[in-house]
Each structure stands twice: as C-alpha cells, then as structure tokens.
C-alpha cells in the first residue's frame, strides 16, 4: 500500500519534468504545428494544442488497463500518477490560468498567482523560439516571490 502511494507520488512529480521537457522540446520543437494555436489565439473553443491531452492520456489509460488486468500491479499506480497529474494540469492550466471554463477567476493564493505570472511570461512569446517558463506546477521561484511581495503591498496599502 505504501509502495503504491509512493509510485503515484513519484510519477506525479516525474510528470512535471515530462511536461516541461515535452513543452520545451516537442511543443516548441517539431510539433509546434499542434501547439502554435495556443500562443496565437484563433476562434473556437478547441485548439490543435488539445491533442496533447491524448498524447498523455493514452499511456495513462493503457497503464491503468493492463495493470488492472494483471492483478493491479505497479502499472496501475504509474497510470494513476499520470492521470492525477493530468487532472492537476487541467485545473491549473485550462481552468485557472486560461479560464476556458469560467469557474475560478481570481485567487490571492501566492502559489497560484506565481504560476499565472510565469505562464503569462511564457505566452508573451508568440513564436516557438525564445520561450521561457515551460513548467506548469513548478516555475522559477522569483514568480512566487513577486506574488508574495505584491500581496504584502496590497495589505499595507
């Protein structure tokens, strides 16, 4: 039981690295054609960039399926870690940052404000070159410091 939980947690954190790596070298590399519309807003709800959901969901589903078919072996827990990361990514990226679903509009949480600022910095580049801040849940610490400083200034004002 403890080992399974550790596998889920380790996979979740490993997925942040995979998201960063994929974003920097694949989305801003040879699959820019799928990611481009995420940086340059085009009409419509869906983006070609949404294809990346499937790229990560398929391995998660297969791991869950084959792991469950074989007595709930380690593959289930890896698949679960990927799925949980995908849900967290969706909540932060699509709901909080880009507000594709108008559920959570504002937050005074320093962590969330730091993530939003880092993502805005990433999106200031409309092309695939010169990008920065490719992570989603872990971004440079300076953005959290800026958010904390802004929050303190708001309290004193």
What does this structure look like?
It is globular, with a radius of gyration of 17 Å. The protein has helices at 2-30, 32-39, 51-69, 74-97, 110-123, 141-156. The chain is mainly alpha-helical and 157 residues long. The protein starts with a helix and ends with a helix. Helix 1 (2-30) crosses helix 2, helix 3 (51-69) packs antiparallel against helix 4 (74-97) and helix 5 packs across helix 6. The chain has one domain.
Explain briefly what this protein structure is.
With 157 residues, this protein is mainly α. Helix content is 70%, strand content 0%. The protein has one domain (2-156).
What does the secondary structure layout of this molecule look like, with pairings?
Blueprint: H1 2-30, H2 32-39, H3 51-69, H4 74-97, H5 110-123, H6 141-156
Helix pairs in contact: 1-2, 1-4, 3-4, 5-6
Keywords:
157 residues, single chain, 6 helices, mainly alpha, globular
Which spans of ≥5 residues are poorly predicted at pLDDT below 50?
A: none
- Give the number of helices: 6
Instruction: Please count the beta strands (DSSP E, at least 2 residues each).
Output: 0
What is the N-to-C succession of helices and strands?
A: HHHHHH
Backbone shape: globular
The helix/strand class is: mainly alpha
What share of the residues does DSSP label as strand, in percent? under 5%
Largest β-sheet summary:
none
Structural Rg: 17 Å
Distance between the termini: 50 Å
Mean pLDDT: 91
Number of domains: 1
Percent range of helical residues: over 70%
């Amino acid at each position: 039981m403890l080992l399974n939980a550790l596998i889920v947690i380790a996979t979740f954190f490993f997925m942040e690295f995979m998201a960063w790596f994929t974003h920097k070298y694949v989305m801003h590399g040879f699959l820019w054609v799928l990611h481009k519309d995420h940086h340059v807003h085009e009409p419509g709800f869906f983006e070609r960039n949404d294809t990346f959901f499937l790229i990560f969901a398929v391995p998660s589903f297969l791991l869950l399926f084959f792991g469950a078919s074989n007595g709930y072996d380690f593959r289930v827990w890896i698949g679960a870690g990927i799925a949980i990361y995908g849900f967290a990514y969706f909540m932060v990226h699509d709901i909080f940052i880009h507000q594709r679903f108008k559920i959570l509009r504002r937050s005074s949480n320093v962590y969330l404000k730091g993530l939003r600022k880092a993502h805005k910095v990433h999106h200031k580049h409309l092309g695939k070159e010169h990008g920065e801040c490719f992570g989603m849940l872990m971004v440079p610490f300076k953005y959290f410091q800026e958010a904390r400083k802004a929050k303190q200034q708001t309290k004193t004002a």
